[in-house]
Amino acid sequence: MPPSSPLDGTSQRAGFQPDRLLRDLPEFLPDAVRQALSEFPVFDGHNDLPAALRAKAGYSVAGLDQLTPRFQTDLVRLRRGGVGAQFWSAWVPSSLPGDEAVVATLEQVDGIERLVAAYPDHLARANTAAEVRAAWRTGRIASLIGIEGGHSIGRSLGALRAFARLGVRYLTLTHATNTPWADSATDSPAHGGLTDEGRAVVRELNRLGVLVDLSHTSADTQRDALAVTGAPLIFSHSSAFAVNPHPRNVPDDVLELLRRNGGVVQATFVPAFISQALAEWETEARQHLSPAGDTKPDFSTFWKPAPLPGETFEERARLNAEASAAGPDFAARLAAWQEGHPRPEVTVDDVVRHVEHLREVAGVDHIGLGGDYDGTFYQPTGLEDVSGYPRLLTALAERHWSAADLGKLTGGNVLRVLEEAEGAASDKLWPGAGLT
Q1: What Å distances lie between residue 203 and 77, 132, 211, CA to CA?
Q2: What pTM does this model have?
Q3: Catalytic site residues?
Q4: Is domain 10-424 classified as CATH 3.20.20.140?
């Protein structure tokens, strides 16, 4: 069982402190946006800061209470963005062997716990919907953990249960490649969706009250999971296939199934998922710059060693930086190529098109936000870092979204799904699970 929540005790008696959560918002916001955020701060589905800290800072969590330009995320900009709850991603490359993946995922969970512990005035660990609300009442950002990829459990339900008891609140069924029991959106189909083993994983997630996350999965895996689940599901960071036919986006028939399921698709901002022109530009760039002409991203190149026993964070950061510098100067080669191949611009308006399509097909009760900050090298113009959410919400308000509908998008829908998954669980992992 996880330790007692830091929200136990006096925080439960405190009144909601929206002024503390929202004091750093832009001064001039439409009334509808300010009203929505005062009731439901942004509950973002996916942020890869833990992996970025590992790669760039040797896993040190120091200095994040100041503007930190080398990351897309810090505490200053989270508050400027109106973020009140964050699923921090425990991601490790799907190329890691099973046992290494499990250990590396534990390191990611530890990194998230250290991040929250370092900033108790700003962040609060939360395992339940009630604890998210309690964090808001104290003016802190609720911090939850999601594992990005079924490879992280090593084909072991015991490992899954152990992660759940450490406070993991969702499992993305696949990442970039297939697991032995589920097809990924970006790999060649191997199973036609979920195998019987995969269906058992979904049922165990339901039993534990851990959310099933369908981002990164193939459409067949999505349909199979929606057919077997006994609780609402999420897409933690995906957008609309009908707007941009990228395999990481969700087709309309799945969105309709998600509506019936009661789940939520959290629109992501990753430029290649938002813009077909940008996706084609990235493919051309990789083909030109890769010695083998490979058009698929190699996520393992961003993975760096964690500090060994006896190493300081600073020593590990230096060693990781030296290892990166010893490789091909990819950034310089990309800049040279880009002089003759300018990158297509992706804007807030492009993201709006996805959000509005998701609303049209899935319904306003089944949409949310999952920016994927620090999980991609760059974000759309106007959404460059986590402070950008008010710009997107303002663009939607200008298109006549009401405060009530904006509140469902920012956090209300995800909070409901989290609560319903807790209520559907038969193994109550946390005190108060399933209670409001």
Answers
A1: 38, 25, 11
A2: 0.93
A3: 46, 48, 148, 175, 216, 237, 372
A4: yes
